[in-house]
Amino acid sequence: MNSQHTPRIVLGEEVAAAAAGQEAIVALESTIVTHGMPAPDNVETARRVEAAVRANGATPATIAVIDGVARIGLADEELDRLGRPDPEPVKIGSQNLAASFYLGQTGGTTVAATMKLAALAGIKIFATGGIGGVHRGAQYSFDISGDLEEIARTPVAVVSAGFKSILDIAKTTEYLETRGVPVVGYQTAMLPSFYSIDSPHEVTLRLDSPEAVGGYLHTHWSLDPACGAVIANPIPQRAAIPADRIETAIAQACAHADADGISGKELTPFLLQWLADATDGESLEANKELVLNNAKIAALIAQHLTPPASGNKTSATVSLRS
Ligand code: PSU
Ligand code: MN
User: What average pLDDT does range 238-261 have in this prediction?
Assistant: First the structure.
């Protein structure tokens, strides 16, 4: 075996110090930087998101692959490099994570790849904008984000503003139910839909405080130590775009993607960019606000996580009836 081909995962200084002191850490993804937002909003937002995590009492760990090495916590120049379009960074999901190590690539990790790396580094909570899901028209394209599979098999809680409304929210909800992934509504009983505060779908359970989410996650991981969870946190009201207003633009964006033959990894970035243009930047502003809000809630929850005593084994108590 060639040690050159063994994956390397390196903690940044700030993250290493927090891990040594068993302090709260929040993982952050980087596809939102490389493929989710235009420059310079992408890097600016990533820095504001890191600041929001710090301001709420936790250490941010932005995760990416730089020259074939996974970085948990990025240096300033590494984040700057990811934000530049040239040379074009790779979009790295679970499928091509090993390929990115092997080929020495540089790129942004999706929710799926970020979760996998966070779990390896012992980080239990992660903030993003909105997870990937089942795309509209998936009955023809079979386009289902790898994020859903990873959440079902990796014990990290993902704070997300529900599911991106560019997706088929009903099918995404069904898929997570099939895979046994709980969707916790943070201060809401209705599933948020990214730009909008709600949707017609109910969450698995509603919880109203970071303490309650921490307590619930303890129960969840005691029962199912290998499964992730979605913490669905609605966009702040002042930045929200009502569903009926954004829906027309989403339908147009999907039709254009279809007509232009956009599919696979390019689809989500194409739709987000198309919407930002079609709404004169309103959807981009909403996207920034919801990520910041998710980072804040994740930082608060991170301070209330207690790992189940038995590590990776189910630890529910079984006793005789008394
Ligand atoms: N949330 C955002 N913007 C994004 C994404 C999420 O606000 O760009 C990214 C995440 O990295 C997510 C990815 O994992 O989109 C999903 O891509 P796909 O549908 O190709 O799996
Ligand atoms: Mn896809």
Answer: 94
Distances in Å between the Cα of 114 and the Cα atoms of 32, 44, 125, 309, 322 are: 11, 20, 11, 25, 45
The helix/strand count (H/E) of the chain reads as: 13, 11
Q: How many CB atoms lie within 10 A of CB 278?
A: 17
Which residue, judged by its Cα, is nearest atom 17 of ligand 1?
132
Q: Classify residue 217 by its DSSP letter.
A: H
Cα-based distances in Å from 23 to 73, 281, 282, 302: 15, 37, 36, 9
Helix/strand/coil for 43: helix
Residue type, 206: R
Q: Is 118 exposed, middle or buried (0-12, 13-18, 19+ CB in 10 A)?
A: buried
CA distances from 144 to 21, 127, 175, 198 (A): 39, 21, 9, 22
Residue 287 burial class via C-beta count within 10 angstroms: exposed 0-12, middle 13-18, buried 19 and up: buried
Mean pLDDT, the chain, whole residue set: 95
Tokens representing 140 are 């023809």
What local confidence, expressed as pLDDT, does residue 308 receive? 67
On whether the CB atoms of residues 316 and 223 are closer than 8 A, the answer is: yes
Structure tokens at 148: 């859903």
Q: Which is the closest atom of ligand 1 to the Cα of 133?
A: 19
pLDDT reported for residue 2: 65
pLDDT bucket at 312, cuts 50 / 70 / 90? low
- 309 or 102: which leads in pLDDT: 102
30, 32, 90: which to mutate for ligand 1, most atoms within 8 A of CB? 32
Report the C-alpha dihedral over residues 59, 64, 68, 69, rounded to 10 degrees. 10
Q: Answer whether 32 contacts ligand 1 (Cβ < 6 A).
A: yes
